[in-house]
Specification:
Radius of gyration: 24 Å
Number of strands: 4
Structural class: mainly alpha
Shape: globular
Strand order of the largest sheet: 1-2
Helix content: over 70%
Mean pLDDT: 77
Length: 527
């Protein structure tokens, strides 16, 4: 066991300290911070539902047979919307898990492959630009308002996608860019909230459980979207956007009613829980503006760079799997993942489980005296071991489909250990700037969203198993390099340059008294 430093030991003692005069009475179940984790997790479920529903909906929207015939028999017209109007069935023999032939009905639009690619990538065109502005707005105005308003606009835009798809594909692309712009605010805003709400000894599991909602979004959205495509209204695909857009709006209303920016202003929190959180955190972040953000210190900090490199390298694998896994299952394993929602969701069940196991384990190890730095590095090292499984996956063919799905699921699950390691690390090293730092690392982590699918497409022109072996080896290498860099330079302690921006509880109390006295004096002078 690795012993903690004095700061870590102090945090452990705070966790075990008395609350309300009795030992072991620290509130947990049915508390405001757990409620924040639950509603936050549901919010991230909606977030990812709106992000990935397009990947399923476009399968229902496009007449793939017509597009394939045009590409194979004639040159593509200058227009992205190809002039052909028929619907057919595409039946292919497949080496599927059930050994049966599969078939699927084509959609109503004949869009070129290039247009389809732009529609799928449009989300990231907007998503990459709003992380740093989102972090600045969250630390200035509070994460609750920024997160709630941005996800509300995203939900409305998702609803409108059902109309935009029929009016003009370029309108649909514009709406997807808007959704990406809005969702860039969400992660950083949530980090800002947890910098005020998460006691150090509970940080990994609270933040991990919240972010695990993204994988619930995958688990729910992939099979539900497939069902809606077949049985829903609006010609199937329209209901995908209507359902998930409406769900997002309902969630936003609940969020604005139930959540507060900090324990100090929460109307329903118990005094015991508020005192426990404030005593555990020990500090409160000052309200900071853009000019006060220590950008030069960020650039010179190796722990910051470790987060950026680790986040980007792990996201390479995650986005590679998220965007190209259906293609791999169709081209190598020889079955259409759309025809069986179960197999599209299984890897993300593992992802969700590993996120929460990792978060619970991290906090348990901290209570036993392990240093935060050691825990973050060890968990991220285990996450990178998914690269070994990806290499093995490349050598499993369609004759062993069950084994391939199992290996793929375990590899995806191990990637979930990214959450209680590198994705929590921003709050460890600089609580006042957790939102901005996440914005910085998320910009780098968005790059795989553009690059990985393009690299996969370039490396697999013939869709052969040997080409996919190269894809998996490259992805594993990227993850390994990032894990080595993170293992050398990561840190789990508050950095010296961040401490000067944090106000201690006694100082905060004195400031509140002075502010109240000043307000009272002004009131007397006016009256």
């Amino acid at each position: 066991m690795t012993p903690g430093n004095e700061g870590e030991k102090t945090a452990v003692r705070m966790e075990k300290a008395t609350v309300g005069g009795k030992d072991d009475q620290v509130p947990w179940i049915c508390t405001s911070r757990v409620a924040l984790a639950v509603i936050g997790s549901l919010g991230f479920m909606n977030l990812y539902a709106q992000r990935i529903n397009m990947s399923v909906a476009i399968v229902c929207m496009v007449n793939h047979t017509a597009v394939s015939l045009i590409y194979s028999n004639a040159s593509v017209a200058d227009s992205d919307v190809l002039d052909i109007n028929f619907t057919t069935y595409d039946e292919r023999l497949s080496c599927s898990v059930d050994g049966q032939n599969t078939h699927s009905r084509d959609g109503e639009f004949v869009w070129s492959k290039e247009l389809q690619g732009i529609a799928l990538a449009a989300f990231f065109y907007g998503y990459v630009f709003t992380h740093i502005p989102g972090g600045i707005l969250a630390q200035r105005f509070g994460g609750k308002r920024v997160l709630g308003s941005s996800l509300f606009i995203s939900s409305v835009a998702t609803l409108l996608c059902a109309v935009g798809g029929r009016v003009d594909p370029h309108l649909l692309i514009f709406l997807r860019v808007i959704i990406g712009l809005c969702q860039g605010f969400v992660f950083v805003s949530m980090h800002d909230l947890w910098s005020k709400w998460a006691p150090p000894m509970e940080r990994s599991k609270l933040i991990g459980f919240t972010l695990a909602g993204t994988q619930i979004g995958n688990i729910v959205t992939l099979p539900l979207s497939a069902v809606l495509c077949d049985y829903g209204f609006g010609n199937g695909w329209g209901s995908v956007f209507y359902v998930f857009g409406a769900m997002g709006i309902v969630w936003c209303i609940a969020w604005m009613v139930m959540v507060s920016d900090s324990p100090a202003i929460h109307p329903r929190i118990s005094s015991a829980e508020r005192e426990y959180i404030e005593a555990s955190i020990g500090t409160k972040n000052r309200h900071l503006n853009f000019a006060e953000t220590p950008w030069l210190q960020f650039a010179k900090s190796l722990p910051v760079w470790a987060i950026v490199v680790g986040h980007a390298s792990s996201n390479w694998v995650i986005y590679m799997l998220l965007t190209t896994m259906p293609a791999y299952m169709k081209e190598v394993l020889r079955f259409d993942i759309k025809s069986n929602g179960l197999f599209s969701a299984v890897p993300y069940v593992f992802f969700w489980v590993f996120i929460n196991i990792g978060g619970i384990s991290a906090d348990a190890l901290r209570k036993k005296g392990w240093r935060t730095t050691t825990i973050r590095k060890v968990l991220f090292g285990f996450a990178s071991s998914s690269g070994v499984l990806l290499i093995a996956l490349g050598y499993i063919g369609c004759e062993n489909s069950y084994a391939a799905v199992a290996v793929l699921s375990l590899a995806t699950g191990l990637c979930g250990l990214q959450f209680p390691s590198v994705l929590v690390n921003h709050v460890d090293i600089a609580p006042p700037f957790a939102a901005v730092l996440l914005g910085l690392s998320n910009i780098a982590a968005c790059i795989p969203g553009f690059v990985a699918p393009y690299v996969v497409k370039t490396l697999t022109p013939n869709s052969s198993q040997s080409e996919w072996q190269v894809v998996f080896c490259i992805s594993a290498a990227v993850f390994f390099v990032g894990a080595i860099f993170y293992g050398i330079f990561a840190d789990g302690e508050v950095q010296d340059w961040a401490k000067s921006y944090m106000v201690s509880q006694p100082e905060l109390a004195l400031r509140d008294v002075c502010e109240e006295f000043e307000r009272t004096t002004i009131t007397w002078s006016v009256t």
